[in-house]
Amino acid sequence: MNRQWVTWRLPLICGMLAIMILFTGCWSRREIEDLGFTIGAAVDIGEETQVEQEFDQQGGDYSRQKALTLTYQMVQPGQSSSISGKGGGGEKKYHNISVTGDSLYEDTREIALMQGHPIFGQHYKVIVISDKVASKFNMRLLFDFFIREQEFRPSCLVLICKGEARAALDQKDKSQFPSMRLLSITNNRYRSSRILPPMTLSKLLPEINSSSSFLLQNVITAEDEVKFAGAALIYGKTGKLIGFLNEEDLESINWMSSKVKGGVLKSYDSRSGKPLLYEITSMKSNIRPHINGNRISFDIQIESDGRLGEQWENGNGFDNRFIRQVEEETVKQARQRIDKMLHKVQKVYRADVIGLDQYVRIYYPRIWEKIKKDWDDMFANATIRYSVKVNIKEFGTTSIKVH
Amino acid sequence: MSEQESLTTHQAVVIVSNYILGVGILTLPRAAAEKVKTPDIWLSIIIGGLIAMLAGLIIVKLSQKFPGMTFYEYSQRIVGKWIGCILNLIVIGYFIAMSSVMLRAMAEVNTLFLLEGTPRWAMIIAFMWVGIYLVIGGLPAITRMFEIIFPITVIIFFMIAVMSLKIFDINNLRPVLGLGIMPVLHGVKTTALSFSGFEIMLLIVASMKKPETAKKAVLVGIAIPVLFYVTTAVMVIGALTVEGVISLSWPTITLIKSFEFPGIFFERYESLLLVIWMMQIFTTFVITHYAAAKGLAQSMKKDMHPFLYVLMPIIYIVAMLPKNINDLFHFSDSVGNLAFVMFVILPIALLGIAKLRGAQV
Lengths: 403, 361
Known about the structure:
The structure holds two protein chains of two kinds. Chain A contains twelve helices and 13 strands. Chain A is of the alpha/beta class. In chain A, the strands form two sheets. In chain A, strands 1, 2, 3, 4, 5, 6, 7, 8 and 9 form a nine-stranded mixed sheet that branches. In chain A, strands 10-11-12-13 form a four-stranded mixed sheet, with helices on both faces. In chain A, helix 5 (about 140-150) packs across helix 7, helix 8 (about 245-255) packs across helix 9 (about 320-350) and helix 10 (about 355-365) crosses helix 11 (about 365-370). The longest helix of chain A has 29 residues, at about 320-350. Chain B is globular and about 60 Å long.
């Protein structure tokens, strides 16, 4: 019997190995070529595209309300990896496909009727919501699908587009991905303080759950070009968009909440009216809330280091008196902007989008439990004292010297 | 004993740690956040860990009274044949339930995140056969496997933890004890249960080379999962906030999916986490399967191998019982409650009885 085992051993092992190698596989395998890689989505108020209207006429209609139009940006299969020499750059690397309906999930699956490659959302980069949709629907309901579906990445960036959202997913230079461009702009915070720190789906979820007011980066479009322009204001209690802050307001909010990585601040010389430009290299703020009975107040110290970047006025950078003067003008300018912004968020919109609620929660946790429901109203009546300090550390390689 | 089972202290530590680490890595932050509702979850976890250590010490103490014997053997000597037999059956039932919960959780997570089209039975059966291949080798084979898996888990886990610093915000963890200690204590039951696994000391003290070091082994064996769980909770809450975590079914996976490092070749780091998690599920499954079979064998004074095969269909059926994911969570909670009674209260009682009966035992 022992000998028998020895003679059979080799074929047996070979057979086992063959089975292991030949029969190994993945049950849920999907070839990468067969995936419809989707990198962006846009949600608009329901308005059927030309194609859809024709589909409907041909009998492609189904039971739905035309409430929303969902647009997906799909990577053109086989094109994404091709060498750029082939099409000479004129080749479109992506195509956008729109579906109208009242369920975002159904819309997504409807695409499986039109495309060889159904939506594959694991490489999602950006979701753009049109301002009309955001002011009509509660964010919680609107994002339910995107947050729930495990295929979509929570690292996906959320943007608001004033106007038609799908326009933000189109651009003239067809050889690049519009979604990627939107994403890259958020990386430019070291050059501009007018960009909101990226609001991803995973950061959106706690804001929605706690019914707090928050900002979403706003995008505007013109002739296939985009620009980040201020922020949309989402009101906590209703979860809807209630208004916009312009670039300068957004900038002031970023200053206050120390979310600045870089940027410039232009002021005008009070005597000559000529522009002076201060470049921010660092900016810190220190926020301390105080609660006295029913009165809530905040002390905010903003301090910034930077350099004199540009001057349209005669003045000697080597002279500290001139430097002090520029610092004063800059502070004056900053205060004006902040005052304007505070008036807007406290008196006009009455919504705490600066994120001061965090500090009340941290410093007065017990009181916070009682007031968190009405925080936005409390915020509107809170006193906000702030100080701005600007230190010009240097002025670049030259300074205008007038003899 | 036919198998040559003798464990070093290190091996005992690895077995305890591997057994404890399991589903908790993915779900504990939410389970604890639901109860605590403040960012102090990590404190609950530490307190839970301390309670588990205390319970572990009692079990060790009990086992040390009967050198070379497992719980299944000495239970009858403490409380008599019949009650001892019933106790053994309950413990065996617990191990079977635990084993099934692991299998099902593995299947659920896999279906959701990795293998969309693969039927659950296919995953579970493949998992079980690999498991039985290991268990047949007895405790020495299991231990060696655990020793391989453990360092891989540590390395990948802490690598992912460091990566998630990218979206970490310390303000989300403040204030510490803002609402006092009460919320923290609310969560302790949940967190303490997540450390169930130290009960394996009921069996393995008997196989240790130096049973007198078993106390150290159980303390270190629990301290390691405490470190894992605290890190997980701190990273998850720090990135996703308490409000966010409460509504996530698998918060840790969401955390890993929430950041990207452009430029690095691949983006989906959650696959790394799922790999180590699956290995941890495997270790828990294997050791519970072993413990159940060993229990049956020792209660009936027979060889263990046939029982391993007999248990397979039972574990499979129990694993398929929960109808949906909520059922699974509930089932897992009840198993945890059973663990509390069996491995915290019962050992104290047994230890008391054993002390009272003194010389007779």
